[in-house]
Batch of 4 targets.
Target 1
Amino acid sequence: MLVFGIDIPLVEIVFTFAIIMFLLLVEVIVIISLQVKQLNKTKEVGELLGSLSHTLLEIKQEEIKELDKLKK
């Protein structure tokens, strides 16, 4: 096969493309694993924020009850 006027065997071209595809596959696997880790951390932070807001709401309700008792 002629490439830019140089005769290159087709087997070498296929082998080169196979190596490039393998490297791309490895990169994709690494990126997906990093995204899954980040997704798990984001879920955990969301759950912690939910429990924090629930706790703050309970504290606020207790404060309101105490203020109502003091007013009476």
Target 2
Amino acid sequence: MNDNREQSEVTPSAPQRRVPWWMALIIILCALPGVSFLFMGNLLTSLDMTVKGLTWFYPLYTIASALLAWQCYGRRTLLCWIILVLLIMSHCCFFYLATSIDPTASYR
């Protein structure tokens, strides 16, 4: 009863959906404002450690959100859009923080 036939493992793989180019463009455009916060000199030189810490942490949050939106698009498209909306709302809040510290400051 020894069967010398090779058994190949057949594992059904889930169809891999690529992120369309227009969605990749939307994700990149949503992430660009958050990455630019590192170049805001007045926020980085602030004496408030909370503001300085948020300025360094925010680009990491932006990149993580963009990567999560990228991963979620094919399987959970609604979650991808929710992540992008939250990212845009956080940009608005961070811009408000940046302008409320010193409204006359010039940001590079």
Target 3
Amino acid sequence: MKKVLIGLLVIVIFFIGVTIFDKATNFKSYAYINDVYTENNNIIISIDGGNGDSKYHHYELNEIGNGIYELQLYASIISGKFFPVEIEFNNESNHIKEIRQKPNNGDETGREYEVIYPSE
């Protein structure tokens, strides 16, 4: 019985460790936008991929001005969805006027941001 409890404890500690490692290794990623379109008052951003062999983990949409939002994609090596993915935002009240995306830290274009919605 004692060996079973120790085995269960080791398994639980292992999964907690993997979860902590996954959260620690999430990193900001530049999204390779394939398409941006609206459908039924929703803004849909179709993303082909992120940096390298990473997986889509989550995103943050932060309001940086009146109706102007900044999209930041996060990726992970361990968990998440494989690309391509679609991110959908409800814009029924038309509160989203513009969505920007910051380039990667290593981006040498000198751009401060890229407007991804409305699409050009």
Target 4
Amino acid sequence: MKFNHIEDVKRYINFLKNISNEGSKWYRDLEWFSSVNYTTTSEYFGELVKFIEKVVADGAFKEQKEELIQLHDTIKACFQK
């Protein structure tokens, strides 16, 4: 998946929310990240990177692991410049 814009990221997080159920321990965070409007993009991405690391470490969304890692790496690369 290509993550070229913040809306791409929000759409993907919304997709993850939609494939999880409301009882999932990640559901509320996914709901928040799919709709939140931060004052600064860097704040949103900084919090999202931490969240993705937790989700991957937990083993959640195994089928989407590669895309989650891709999103994580894309965000990290933007801030290393």
